[in-house]
UniProtKB/TrEMBL annotation:
Organism for this UniProt entry: Caldithrix abyssi DSM 13497
Pfam families linked to this entry: GxGYxYP_C (PF14323), GxGYxYP_N (PF16216), GxGYxYP_N_2nd (PF20957), GxGYxYP_N_3rd (PF20958)
Domain GxGYxYP putative glycoside hydrolase second N-terminal: 125-187
Sequence ranges assigned to domain GxGYxYP putative glycoside hydrolase third N-terminal in this UniProt record: 191-273
Stretches assigned to the GxGYxYP putative glycoside hydrolase C-terminal domain: 292-520
Domain GxGYxYP putative glycoside hydrolase first N-terminal: 52-123
InterPro entries registered for this protein in UniProt: GxGYxYP_C, GxGYxYP_C_sf, GxGYxYP_N_1st, GxGYxYP_N_2nd, GxGYxYP_N_3rd
Protein name: GxGYxY sequence motif-containing protein
Lineage: Bacteria, Pseudomonadati, Calditrichota, Calditrichia, Calditrichales
Length: 527
């Protein structure tokens, strides 16, 4: 999956606000308690539900100041989140949701004043760590901040903290990731970690500090990376991203580490500290058996991408923000981990799904379950499949999309052994439609492969429609069914609609749950 980000900056959401806003009403859907709920084996840290948030407008601060603010945000969240950053439309959307539906009070009085912000919270931090930006020392500082309750500071801002009497704890400008791991490995959280490029220090650091995680970026084949990976417990999620998708998933999977693409994520330390009940929109699936039709299911890719879901997934008109989404039946991948990483975001997405005969949104677990893995490389696959199932149940998901390199039953059966998982949509990493529509059966459940890709370089809406129109209409043959991965970085909702508009009347478009039902009903010999 090629990872792109289109972050739309907006100041309009801040205009017209008073310094402090409070909404005491809490929606009926808010089941949040003071202590966020976690599954028994959850790797995701939690503290307390926020009741008041000081809003920070990113546009008012330098990158170095944002580093300090972000690490402060993480330190405060270890007890209770108190800071929320605004930089784009997605940030504003989630803040409005917290304010309107979860009774969170918001305060804008510190949104543009670095010194006032530090002064307000100076008694909540133990000191400061000096580092550079854009080299390994920034990651070292972020890692150290989490376990020392300090903030990271660059040289130009030291006088501000000195004047406030905030003590220097450590100057790490002559250190690196290896130094930190050698001296502090026993102090870090070994159930979750961050793999983050140094130039993206303004993102994800709040969550790393909050969870007392190591943040580092070293070659995947380096001795340091292998030591850190081996130090982690099985099924430890990695948040961040690398420069080579295949290599990252290949090496992390070998160490039983699922990956959450999150290198541009903000505010996770705040968003993670809520609990809500999650339920997909109720709709009556179309399970009518019609002879002589070709059945098609379009599924949007990349729903495992946490930062995309947080940034412009819901606001961009190409994707979930499309005004035309109600005109088609669509499948969407989404990360089950969002149920604990950002549960209010997940509920917001679910609550706005279409559920009519004309258009319906149905969500399946994004690759490859709890996080992005290659099952053929994953050592602790049985326990991972069980954990995936638990998170899928929490997130009201019953179909899992898996990306891998082999379709062997050895690597897929552990998932279909889970009572909560009804089917696998399997894509080969090298070509999502490399399975050419083949359907396998394990435990009476289907493993369905992609038939064609709606993806730049593979098929256009026009060429795909032409192929689907002339494909088999035998509903009792696997050739009568086409799973279509829709590559979201080159195609959107309107491209799917364009393809649908060109389909013959005997081509039927269904949602993933309908697709699985029809395949089991018409193809499974055990019926």
């Amino acid at each position: 999956m090629i990872r792109l980000v289109s972050i739309i900056f907006s100041l309009l959401t801040l205009l017209g606000y008073s310094c402090q806003e409070k909404n005491s009403s809490v929606s009926a859907g808010d089941t949040t308690s003071a202590q966020p709920e976690r599954l028994a084996l959850s790797p995701y840290p939690a503290s307390s539900r926020p009741d008041k948030l000081f809003i920070i407008n990113d546009h008012n601060f330098s990158p170095a100041q944002l580093l300090t603010i972000e690490t402060l945000q993480g330190v405060l969240a270890q007890r209770k989140p108190q800071i929320y950053r605004l930089a784009n439309d997605g940030d504003a959307q989630w803040l409005e949701d917290l304010k309107n539906n979860y009774g969170v009070e918001v305060d804008y009085s510190l949104q543009a004043n670095f010194e006032a912000l530090l002064s307000h919270f100076k008694n909540d931090i133990a000191g400061y760590i000096v580092c550079n930006v854009n080299d390994q020392t920034v990651n070292t500082a972020i890692s150290l901040c989490g376990i020392t309750k300090a903030v990271a500071v660059t040289a130009e801002n030291i006088p501000i903290l000195e004047a406030m009497g905030i003590p220097l704890l450590k100057d790490v400008r002559n250190t690196d990731d290896a130094w930190f791991f050698t001296h502090y490995a026993d102090s870090i959280n070994n159930r979750i970690l961050c793999y983050q490029k140094e130039d993206r220090f303004a993102f994800l650091a709040d969550y790393a500090v909050f969870g007392k995680m190591i943040t580092f970026y070293s070659p995947l084949t380096s001795e340091l990376t292998q030591k850190i990976f081996a130090f982690m417990q099985p099924n430890t999620p990695l948040l961040g991203w690398g420069s080579d998708e295949f290599q990252l998933i290949y090496h992390s999977s070998a160490n039983s580490i699922p990956v959450h693409p999150a290198d541009w994520a903000k505010n996770l330390s705040t968003l993670t500290n809520f609990s809500v009940s999650l339920k997909q929109q109720t709709a009556t699936p179309d399970t009518q058996i019609t002879e002589n039709v070709h059945t098609v299911c379009f599924v949007m890719t990349d729903g495992d991408n946490i930062q995309w879901l947080l940034n412009d997934f819901t606001t961009n008109s190409r994707w979930y923000g499309s005004p035309n989404r109600s005109k088609a039946k669509l499948g969407w991948t989404i990360s089950p981990a969002l149920s604990e990483l950002a549960p209010t975001v997940m509920k917001y997405i679910y609550d706005r799904a279409d559920a009519t005969n004309a258009g319906r949104d149905y969500f399946i677990a994004g690759p490859s379950g709890l996080g992005y893995i290659f099952p053929d490389r994953y050592k602790n696959l049985v326990t991972y499949a069980s954990l995936t199932s638990q998170f899928m149940e929490k997130a009201d998901l019953r179909i899992v999309n898996i990306i891998g390199n082999t379709r062997s039953a050895e690597y897929l059966k552990p998932f279909l052994d889970q009572q909560n998982i009804d089917a696998i949509f399997f894509y080969y990493f090298s070509n999502y439609s490399g399975g050419m529509g083949k359907i396998d059966w394990l435990n009476g459940k289907p493993v369905i492969t992609g038939r064609f890709n709606l993806w730049e370089g593979f098929e256009t809406p026009e060429s795909l429609a032409e192929k689907l129109n002339y494909f088999s209409a035998d509903i009792h043959s696997e050739k009568g069914y086409s799973l279509i991965p829709v590559h979201v970085w080159s195609n959107g909702v309107d491209d799917v609609l364009q393809c649908i508009s060109l389909l013959n009347k005997n081509v039927k478009v269904v949602t993933p749950d309908e697709f699985v039902y029809l395949i089991r009903k018409n193809l499974y010999s055990g019926n």
